[in-house]
Amino acid sequence: MLITVCKMSLLQTVTVSDTMRNNAKTPTPAAPPTSVLQTVRSGRPLNTQRRTREYLTPKEVELLVGAAKQRGRRYGLRDATMISVAYRHGLRVSELCALKWDQIDFGASKMHVRRLKNGMHSVHLIGGAELRALRALRREDINSPFVFMTERGAPMTRDGFLKLITRLGTTADFPFPIHPHMLRHATGFKLANDGQDTRALQHYLGHKNIMHTVRYTELSPERFKNFWED
């Protein structure tokens, strides 16, 4: 009798253990979602949706310089010169804001261009009108090591120049929003359209990789000058 009771107790223990093990293997059903996902807000429009190109034509650069000169003697000179120097030498905004007087050789009419982004440094010639504007700007502030200063006596910043270009684009009635890097692109397309050598253009813009320069020559109308000749 005692042996039978022990066997029944052992059988019950095994049965309970098997039931617990099987329950452990059975996955618990996931709870239903309690909230609805919100619609993702679209970000800033693409550049191609805001304008048809990312560069300015020489005529548009002239309009921008003209709008800058309307700001008056002091800051009209500074703003117009900034735009002209950025366009003439294909400077990035950071390179333009970091430009110092010791990079400019007034006697030899040359500028030592220090490229960022691991670009190639070079020496550019300075034109007559540009040289006169830089001399006049130098007389306005002879104590600062930087060429382009703000009203607060500090070097011009990227954000400051961006706001300036945006405001001048509105003043000049541009039909599309503009940004400072369009001046550098304008340099590349202008020189490519003039038929300048691609390798020379690469060094002028400071590109390490010539593929960054080829995009300017790809849109040059000079490639098609012999098409449809009568």
Would you kindly provide a written description of the structure presented here, covering whatever features stand out?
The chain is mainly alpha-helical. The chain has one domain (52-221): hpI Integrase, Chain A (Orthogonal Bundle). The chain is 51% helix and 4% strand. The protein has ten helices and three strands; from the N terminus they run H-H-H-H-H-E-E-E-H-H-H-H-H. The protein has helices at residues 2-25, 47-50, 58-69, 73-89, 93-97, 128-140, 158-171, 181-193, 198-205, 211-218; strands spanning 104-105, 110-113, 122-125. The protein has a three-stranded antiparallel beta sheet with strand order 1-2-3, with no helix packed on it. Helix 4 (73-89) packs across helix 6 (128-140), helix 4 (73-89) packs across helix 8 and helix 9 crosses helix 10. The chain starts with a helix and ends in a 12-residue tail after the last helix.
CATH topology: hpI Integrase, Chain A
- Tally of structural domains: 1
Q: What is the C-alpha radius of gyration, as a whole number of Å?
A: 33 Å
Stretches where pLDDT is under 50 for at least 5 consecutive residues are: 35-40
Please tell me what the overall shape is.
globular
Strand residues, percent:
under 5%
CATH superfamily: Intergrase catalytic core
CATH class: Mainly Alpha
As laid out across the biggest beta sheet, the strand order is 1-2-3
Number of strands: 3
Number of helices: 10
Roughly what percent helix? Answer: 40-55%
- Mean pLDDT equals 84
Q: Structural class of the secondary elements?
A: mainly alpha
Sheet with most strands: 3 strands, antiparallel
The CATH architecture name reads Orthogonal Bundle
Distance between the termini: 121 Å
Write down the secondary-structure element order: HHHHHEEEHHHHH
